[in-house]
Amino acid sequence: MAHISHSRRLRKTPFTPGVEAAGVKAYTVYNRMLLPTVFEDVEFDYHHLKSHVQVWDVSVERQVELNGPDASRLMQMLTPRDLRKMQSDQCYYVPIVDDKGKMLNDPVAIKLCDTRWWISIADSDLLFWVKGLAIGAGLNVEVFEPDVSPLAVQGPKSDALMERVFGSDVHDIRFFRHKRLAFADTSFIVARSGYSKQGGYEIYVEDGRYGMAIWDALFNAGEDLNVRAGCPNLIERIEGGLLSYGNDMTMENTPLECGLGKFCKHAEGLDHIGQEALTLEAAQAPERQIRAISIQGSAVSPARTAWPLQVDGETVGSVSSAAWSPDFNTNVAIGMVRMSHSNEGTELTVETPDGPRLATVHENFWI
Amino acid sequence: MAHISHSRRLRKTPFTPGVEAAGVKAYTVYNRMLLPTVFEDVEFDYHHLKSHVQVWDVSVERQVELNGPDASRLMQMLTPRDLRKMQSDQCYYVPIVDDKGKMLNDPVAIKLCDTRWWISIADSDLLFWVKGLAIGAGLNVEVFEPDVSPLAVQGPKSDALMERVFGSDVHDIRFFRHKRLAFADTSFIVARSGYSKQGGYEIYVEDGRYGMAIWDALFNAGEDLNVRAGCPNLIERIEGGLLSYGNDMTMENTPLECGLGKFCKHAEGLDHIGQEALTLEAAQAPERQIRAISIQGSAVSPARTAWPLQVDGETVGSVSSAAWSPDFNTNVAIGMVRMSHSNEGTELTVETPDGPRLATVHENFWI
Hints:
Two copies of one chain form a homodimer. The longest helix of chain A is centred in the middle third of the chain and has 11 residues, at 126-136. The mean pLDDT of chain A is 97. The first copy, chain A, is of the alpha+beta class. The radius of gyration of chain A is 21 Å and the shape is globular. The first copy, chain A, has eight helices and 22 strands.
């Protein structure tokens, strides 16, 4: 297993001192920033996440701020999802597509007010796309990366831990809503959201100088809750069907292929990039579809490339993420398959680096 | 030292099988793709690069293709460098700036013809910026990432090795010019260029399926030249003053601060993004400047953050890259300092993670 070479270019985060003191064992790089992937080991981290509460350094979810009179107009240009009824305390998962309807990112948009938005991004320089569009189209809006680093609190005991640090106001935050809550001599936007199915919050830490203060406050308050440093967990996110941009979908895919059709419904009067391409695709139905896939046999290694899914030697799809699930006693995976092979129970062969395995298509993830 | 977690998102390259068979020990991630950083060790790799010939997987220099009637117009919008006299076999180093004159990337532009360009990018999703601008401004040009992966051949014996694989035509290629040369049943654009000061070429391998064929051809032809797998070398690139986007300059910097003023000369009739901001800055002179810095004492560790440069407790700059140079018997570094402290011989204190060290500013790198 190769090491990672550190440099300024692979940015540290405001929480890196805490992450390294907690004994991080491996990193990935996400938006040119360090994202922890393993603390104890992936299975230990998984069981702990499902039983207790974890604090995750997800600073890599960099924010793109849209600020100015044309902010809402630009935000709607970016996505097929209808934002017109969105309120100033809401978060929306928004597919971002190009002029051909291909996925550029799948972020969460946070509406702060009509003239100010944050986009909490997946792994691509969405800042460049949004700035390029704004300048090319001559819009009156500033587009930049603010000093905001999300810290996630995830797991069944996250409500208890958050109440101890932010007070009982946290309970009033509904799913995918946010509220500004006091901390020390400042305040942070806190949303009920996060990249797990175990429940929890994301704290949008403004001003990196507060990073270790909020990190330490959470650990000090949560000792008897068995709080640990954690990170998005490969097994848990596959079980829950949480897609990863760059892994399970790329610029080669449309939102309809990714099961995101519900965010792309045609609405009268909406004007966004890629509208024509998506309308055409919706009329014809997409060629392929994201599916849950189970893989028989012993634990597979993580997928470093897309593994071909075949039937009678013909490739009909691929697996993009895979892991052994202790709770479901099978390898769980995410893949994309031709519509003709997407029904529940379809049996295929997956070509893993260790040889072919039997794979079964499922219409639902393990939730 | 933490490991790197592999996934499909951190893309392998057409040469990864060769790189891993050669025993790569560490990777960085660059443009969401794996870039080797160490084979034997950084010092061994350095001495070998300066004495023999190395083959480098620099697929991470992804290409952005501009193709269509407005390609040349769009290319000129992107950069302050005057491209009007550029010929169809030339490569130009081009600063790319935003509307505020801040650096977004420092790629090499390769002109294939008036309606077709490649931009061989540093570490940021320039594709998103260029596509966004083109769509925002309604230009008639396709912008995409083609299946092209550069393979560099670097070192004093690179001419000899390249002649054996491509014939004596390679000698006719002048510095920063390119030529299409035959290989097997195809042909590749070959340029005299590369991210070292040891001389060499970059082969723009079109169609990843040829990756291992050209890799193997170079190794088979170069056995008696002591050819080895290599990679951009931290020590050698600092000695040579080769800047790294994300390390030595970021979106916080202007090209004038980075010593790239010669590519930003005002020219009548030129129309590019950031023109107004750069003209204003040129009239006032930039506030700070990239400089070579030597650091006294034993070998420093690689810089994971910018290390403050101070005088009498006041910060007047920072060091962004540093390494021990065996050939110059000192720590060599790249930093940015206030103009008031940029003269040859200025003595400063650098705050390294291991404590303060004496640092000296130099007007020239170690070449």
